[in-house]
Amino acid sequence: MEKNKTKIEILDWDLVATWSFDLKVETCTICRNHIMDLCIECQNDEKNGRCNVAWGKCGHAFHKHCIDRWLNTKNVCPLDTQVWQEEESALNDKGEIQ
Predict the structure, then answer these.
(1) Is 80 exposed, middle or buried (0-12, 13-18, 19+ CB in 10 A)?
(2) Is residue 13 part of a domain?
(3) Where is this protein localized, as stated in its record (predicted)?
(4) pLDDT by residue (tens digit) across 78-93?
(5) Which end of the chain is less crowded, N or C, counting CB atoms within 10 A of the terminal residue's CB?
(6) Whole-prediction pTM value?
(7) Three-state SS letters, the chain
(8) Burial class, 86, CB count within 10 angstroms (exposed 0-12 / middle 13-18 / buried 19+)
(9) CATH number reported for the structural domain that contains residue 42 in this entry
(10) How far is CA 14 from CA 6, 8, 11, 49, 80, in A?
């Protein structure tokens, strides 16, 4: 009997990974949709398959369209009323890492 003879052979190996943002609140509190889902504006735009997320320096995140609309009337974070300062994104408009 040969000790080094392989008994099984791996023919294919498919890895699957999932990810999510590290958030305290996983819902855009402006539109009430999950932050990983499309905002209301993006749901109405059939061509747009993704929705950007805007992070504040306060640590809160909102859909980009939602917070932009909010900032037209108020310049504070909807959750903690600190002056809104957006973190610089590591992603470009296409969602690719810069």
Answers:
(1) exposed
(2) no
(3) Cytoplasm; Nucleus
(4) 999 999 999 876 454 5
(5) N
(6) 0.68
(7) CCCCCCCCCCCCCCCCCCCCCCCCCCECCCCCCECCCCCHHHHHCCCCCCCCEEEECCCCEEEHHHHHHHHCCCCECCCCCCECCECCCCECCCCCEC
(8) middle
(9) 3.30.40.10
(10) 21, 17, 10, 25, 43
